[in-house]
Amino acid sequence: MEATRVGVAPVYSLEYHPHQHILALRWRGTYSLRELQESYRAALNLARRYGSAHWLLDSRRAGPIDLYVTQWLTQNFLPRAVARLAPRVLRLAVLCSPARLAQLHTDAPVGEAVAEAFAAPHPYHTRVFTAEAEAMAWLLREDQPAALSPASQPVLSQQLVPGRQAGDQQREKSGDAPRPSLFRTVFENSPLGHKIVTPDLTICQVNPALVAMLGCTRADQVEGRRILDFAHPHYRADWCELQEQLWACKIPCFTLQTCLIRADGTLLWCQVHSVRLSDHGQEMGYTTLIDTTAHMELHTSIKRLYDSQETALHMAAHDVRNSLANIKLSVELLRREQVGEEAQYLAIIEQAAVQAEAILKDVLYLGQLDAGQLRKQSLDFSAYLDAHLDTHRLVARAKGVTLVLEVPSHAVQANLNPHNFGRVVDNLVSNALKFTPAGGRVTVRLDKPAGRLRLAVQDTGIGIPAEYHAHLFDKFSTAAREGLAGESATGLGLFITQQIVRLHGGLIRVESRENEGTTFVVDL
C-alpha cells in the first residue's frame, strides 16, 4: 500500500494513502498541547483538501501519554473534523502500545476515561489496535462508508502573476484608474510572510512581512534569489523535499517546519505551507511562512527549566554512588573470608551494585551533556579512530571477532570534542562486539560523501528485531538487551550516543535485519 508523505514537523508526520482515502497522523517523542493542536489542524486541512474519509491516529511513539493523546483528540477535534468534512460516517483507527492498551483493562481511571470518550455519540466508528496491518484491514472493510470525492485543487486568482496584469485591460477600456486588486491588498498587508516561487525555488515575489522576517529592508534583496540561499545548512533537505513533493510527485500542497537564517545571521524558525498552482501555463508555488521563533525559544526555556529540575536527581545520584562504592568495598572484604554459598550471595550483591553504578554513571553523564559543556577541536579523525580502537581490539580478539578499521588514504580532519565523541565510538563498537558471535566481523568505516563526514559501524551479528527499531534511541530504552555473553545494558547507551551526535551537529541512523547484522551510521 503506497503512501505519500504530505507533511513533516519535529513532533508529527502526515501520510496520505490516495487509493484508500486514508490519512495517517503519527506522533513521536514528547510535545506540548499546542503542538498537538498544530498537528491536528495540519491534518484537518489536508483531509479537507484530499477529501479523506478515514483516519489512522498512531500514538505508539508518542512517549508516556499514548492513549491520553487519543482521548483528548477524540473529545476535542474529531467532532469538529466530521462537521467540517462531511455529514457522514467516518472510520477512525487508533494505534497504541500494547502496554497502554492493557491499562484499559487494569487501570480503572485510564480505562473509564478512554472508554467514555470512545462511547460518546460521534458520527464515526472507532477501534483501538496495536498492529498497523490489522488497523488498515479494518479501515478497508467492504462495509465501510464510501470515501469522500477528492476535493478539487484550489484555484487562486490570476493576479498572482507578477506585473499586476490581471484586470488592467478591462480598466483601460472602462477608463477607470488602476486600483490594487483584492489579492494584492491581502498579499501586501498580511502579517504573515508570503512568497511566490518557481519550480527551481527561485523567489519571484515577496510581501513586506517576509522581507522583514528575513531581516532585509527591500524586496529586491530577496526576489531573484533561491530560497535555499536563506536555508540553514542542516535544513536544506526540507526545501528539496518540498520541491520534490510539489513538482515531481504532483502533490497539490505540502507543510513543513524548518529553519532559515536572517540577514544578520540569527535563526528564523518557521512553519511553511506551500500550494502548487498553474497560471497562464506557468508552474508556480505559493508559500506562506509563519514565524515560530518565539515558540521555539519558549520551548527551549521550558527545557532549561526541566533540566534544572534534573539537577536534584543528579545530586542524589552522586550520593547514591558513594553508598554503592561502600557496598562494593564491604563485599570485597567479606569475600576474602567467605566460601561456598555465602560467597555466591556476595557475588550477587556485587553484581547488582555494579549494575546500579553503571546506570548512575550514565545518568550523571547525561547531566554533563545537558549542561552544554562541549568544546571542540580540529583533529585527524583517522588517527583518532585508530588510537581509540586499541582497547576494543583486545576485546575482539578475546571474543574471536575480527575488528577492522577502514579509512581514506589521506588525512581526514574533523572538528569535535575528543572525550565526548569517544563515547560515541565506544558505545557503537562495544554494542557491535556484544552482539556478534565468534567468527564474525565488525567494520569501522570512515569516508566523506558529498563533503560530509560519515562514520559507519557495521557488524555481522544477530541483528535487531524490527519491533525494537522505533525505540533504540529512547531514554531507558525498552529495546535494551543482554549481550551474547550475558553483558548487561542500562538502556541509556544509544540515547547518550544520539545526544552527543546532535551536539556535534550530526545525525545518527540504524540499518538492521534480524540474523543479518547491524549498521549504525553517523553523519557529521
TrEMBL record:
Keyword Kinase applies:
yes
Q: Which top class of enzyme applies to this chain?
A: transferase
Name of the protein this chain belongs to: histidine kinase
What PANTHER family does the entry give?
A: HYBRID SIGNAL TRANSDUCTION HISTIDINE KINASE C (PTHR43547:SF2), TWO-COMPONENT HISTIDINE KINASE (PTHR43547)
- List its EC numbers: 2.7.13.3
> What sequence ranges are listed for the domain Histidine kinase?
315-524
**What catalytic activity is recorded?**
ATP + protein L-histidine = ADP + protein N-phospho-L-histidine
Taxonomy-wise, where does this protein's organism fall, top ranks first? Bacteria, Pseudomonadati, Bacteroidota, Cytophagia, Cytophagales
For whether the record's keyword set contains Kinase, the answer is: yes
Q: Which domain of life is it from?
A: Bacteria
Family annotation (PROSITE patterns): HIS_KIN (PS50109)
Question: What NCBIfam families does the database record attribute to this sequence?
Answer: sensory_box
